[in-house]
């Protein structure tokens, strides 16, 4: 009986020694998986911040582009209006009529 109990203790000790590295590996695996998850979450967050920054930049550029286009159109229309006024004044002058202009 004493011999059987000693054998069981030895077997239990041997089993504990064999399962200890497996348990340690499992805990290390969990730590690595948590770290990978955190790194991926940070990478996703950084990507979304870059995307938002890019979107804001594009919106700003679009706004500035629209303002510039409006200014160019305004100048072009003003030039066209001046050209039409000059042409109208010349046509009136050719037929002997005057175009009223206020002196400034």
SSE topology:
Layout lengths: L1 H93 L10
Describe it:
With 104 residues, the chain is mainly α. It has one helix spanning 2-94. It is rod-shaped, with a radius of gyration of 43 Å. The N and C termini lie far apart (128 Å).
Compact description:
Helices cover 89% and strands 0% of the residues. It is mostly helical and 104 residues long.
Summary tags:
single chain; 104 residues; mainly alpha; 1 helix; 89% helix
Largest sheet: none
What is the residue-mean pLDDT, rounded to a whole number? 84
Number of strands: 0
The CA-CA distance between the termini, in Å, is 128 Å
Tally of alpha and pi helices:
1
Strand content: under 5%
Rounded Rg: 43 Å
Topology order in helix (H) and strand (E) letters: H
Uncertain residue ranges? none
Helix percentage range: over 70%
Structural class by secondary-structure content:
mainly alpha
Morphology: rod-shaped
């Amino acid at each position: 009986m004493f011999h059987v109990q000693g054998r069981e203790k030895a077997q239990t000790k041997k089993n504990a020694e064999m399962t200890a590295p497996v348990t340690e590996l499992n805990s290390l695996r969990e730590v690595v998986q948590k770290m990978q998850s955190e790194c991926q979450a940070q990478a996703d967050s950084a990507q979304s911040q870059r995307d938002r920054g890019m979107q804001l930049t594009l919106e700003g550029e679009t706004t500035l582009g629209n303002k510039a286009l409006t200014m160019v159109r305004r100048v072009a229309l003003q030039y066209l209006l001046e050209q039409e006024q000059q042409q109208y004044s010349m046509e009136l002058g050719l037929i002997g009529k005057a175009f009223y202009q206020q002196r400034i």
